[in-house]
Write a structure and sequence with these properties.
2 strands
């Protein structure tokens, strides 16, 4: 095998491992949190997310002490912007779920893909082929068939969803942008962003959760089982946070969103298996099949030449020719 072929094969293997890591940890944390909230009544989602980032912070500190994370510099302005986008995303999603119907909440989540596409087109000059655009539409259609049922909209719910969608898209865009801009890895970026996220969410979380649920996290009746589920959720969240940064760093926010809907399909399937089969019907199965076809199509279309690539910067030759024409015109005018 040629060195180039060996390198390509290794990249494919690493890409696949990154996706599997993200899918397993994401689906795992959703199932654990669903059991924690539905079975044990721990409905403090924002505080739980703060605990997730506290656990992630501990992991990055241990890895840094062991020498697996090198000391790097990240401007405070970039960290602050990232934390603002991320925290607005977390709080916005929780508020959107409370104020909107489940159907409109799912539509809002689906709209993250076109918003992420818009950011890549405007900020990174990314161009998509016709097949890539169509494959994205097929994925959106399939997931919509699976998840969107009742749809009702109100003004404050729409505002919450709008903030949640744009802040999530910006947060995911920044994961890729900061790694590329500062040439840092996923561990390093987590080491910079997890501590301020943990502190801010643990300060705001209890008040936000009380506003959303009218329950206080310090009044919750903690049992050994519920505490074990909280610890398990935090442990899995370390992998979820790391795998998200790895995947978006290796690919883009749009690819992460499109192919990430495989997690939605798996969550639906596991939900039917572990939490009841009343939602399993023909249109959900059809939606799953349509979404999977769209994901396979997107993977094929976006990986082909011209499927999804950055537009080249303006050529210096063109600029030189324009300058030459201007000078020629000036000489003609003088003559």
């Amino acid at each position: 095998m040629s060195p180039k072929g060996s390198k390509d094969s290794r990249k494919v293997s690493l890409d696949l491992a990154a996706w599997l890591f993200n899918i397993v940890t994401s689906v795992g944390i959703i199932m654990v949190n669903k059991a924690l909230m539905a079975t044990y009544g721990f409905t403090f989602a924002t505080t739980l997310t703060g605990l997730h980032f506290a656990a992630t912070t501990m992991m990055t500190l241990i890895l840094k002490y062991l020498g697996y994370i090198q000391t790097t510099h990240l401007p405070s302005s970039d960290i602050i912007k990232f934390v603002i986008f991320s925290n607005f995303s977390i709080v916005g999603m929780n508020v959107s779920l409370m104020w909107n119907s489940v159907g409109f909440y799912q539509i809002a989540k689906l709209s993250m893909i076109p918003v992420s596409c818009f950011l890549e087109v405007v900020l990174d000059r990314v161009q998509y082929s016709r097949d890539t655009k169509l494959s994205i539409l097929v994925v959106l259609l399939g997931v919509a068939i699976c998840t969107v049922t009742d749809v009702s909209v109100n003004a404050k719910g729409f505002i919450a969803a709008f903030i949640a969608v744009w802040s999530t898209a910006l947060q995911q865009y920044y994961v890729h942008f900061l790694q590329r801009k500062h040439s840092i890895g996923s561990f390093n970026l987590l080491g910079h962003t997890a501590p301020p996220q943990a502190v801010s969410l643990l300060l705001v979380g209890p008040f936000m959760d009380y506003w959303l649920t009218e329950k206080r996290v310090d009044d919750f009746h903690y049992t050994s089982t519920s505490t074990m589920f909280v610890v398990l959720s935090c442990a899995i969240a370390i992998g979820t946070n790391l795998s998200q940064f790895i995947c978006i760093g290796r690919f883009t926010a749009v690819s992460f969103q499109v192919l990430g809907h495989m997690k939605t399909i798996l969550v639906l399937i596991l939900g039917f298996l572990f939490f009841g089969k009343e939602g399993l019907n023909l249109h959900v199965v059809v939606g799953m099949m349509v979404a999977i076809v769209g994901m396979v199509w997107y993977g094929h279309a976006s990986s082909r030449p011209g499927g999804k690539e950055r537009a080249p910067p303006p050529s210096n030759n063109i600029l030189e020719e324009e300058v030459g024409l201007v000078k020629a015109n000036e000489i003609d005018e003088k003559v």
